Amino acid sequence: MELVDRYMQAVEYYLPKGKKGDISRELRANIMDEIEAKQNDKAKDLDITEVSALLKRQGHPQKVAQAYSPLSPLVASEDMPLYKSAMIKALIFLFCYAILTAGNYLFEEQSVNAFAYLFVALGSFLDNIGLVLIVVTTSFYFAGKNGYLNKWRYPKWSPESLPKANAQIISKSDSVSEIATSVFALMMFSTPIWMDPISYEKLILGFAPDMQAWRIILSVLVSYSLISAVYRINKRYWTRTSLAVYVAEYLVYIATMLYLWTQPALVVVHNPQASDLNRIIEGLFTYGWLFGVFIFTLITVSLIRKWFKL
Q1: Which residues contact 133 (CB under 8 A, 6 or more apart)?
Q2: pLDDT per residue as tens digits for the range 20-44
């Protein structure tokens, strides 16, 4: 029958080559048996409308093929937690790579433009996110299909090793943003090292001559923040010790900003003719330190609340 032949051809289209013959013969036999049974009941051949209705009851050709030969999913449901964890780590690694790319861009362009830094970092991240998605998903597909994920699916554990019921989750986004901010800050503080003298002299803003020692002090503080942020990326929960150290880090920044608020201007305008701009910059930094203290105090209070809940 033509309709049966057309239906079987549609089903075979969705079947793997190695299974087409056996499945096709079995399915065709089942359909012909059903048609023959219907014809015996009616004592006459089925017309086109009746055959079409019988084939519709079989289901869509793709659905029938899937029932006979289920396709392997790209990522099995039991592997989704591991897949999600791997994808998050891959994206974090990609973002860190984008931050380094942006830092290298500033070095090549001899610039400290914050907008260019963010634009290059975001552009590098978006350019490569598709590749990361394909690589991770493809790796999981072949590893899961060949049974390699079984030993990684569920890591070793014991009830005693599980986090406490009141455990506080470490925010990955906070750690990533701290990494980006710290890298840019280090680029800013180390301009005399990586920037050529001509480009350095063209900078509008710079450290005041009598405040040059703060380059080293602030670089040390920011370097510690960068290292601790990288360390926290691989951690899922806060401990009382790690959170206490994080609170101490914020207290050091608050104390530093309060001290700088009482000192002469940290940043000045290089151009001696721009005295009006210099006064504006001094005013911005005067109130900027206090604003920073206010923001950091709010964050510290929230962290202390988390600490008491542990």
Answers
A1: 87
A2: 888 888 888 888 888 888 878 777 7
